[in-house]
User: Fold this.
Amino acid sequence: MTREVERTEDGRFVVVDGRRWRTADPALPEDVRARLLHHLGVARSGVRTAGRAGDETAVADARARVQLAKTGLGERGEPWWEQDDDARRTRWETALRELEA
Assistant:
């Protein structure tokens, strides 16, 4: 199965099979991006595992962690292009602090 993927000219979105998704904040330092992506992967795995087990509380907790990681990446919440540098840094530092607590 081949997916059609393209980026918008402004770089703010990626379009996959006609559906638009927000891109991660390009100002993220690479180590921060890697940590957030790690947390995102673990959280998504947690959603699958909890779903298979029928544990709705664990599913909700894992989904909250997905939301937090995606917000830290700049893919959700206030658009990264509308934030100043301090707000962007605060966004990813807050997400990491909560994910790593």
Notes: The chain has a mean pLDDT of 96. Helices lie at 30-53, 56-73, 85-99. The radius of gyration is 15 Å. The longest strand covers residues 13-16.
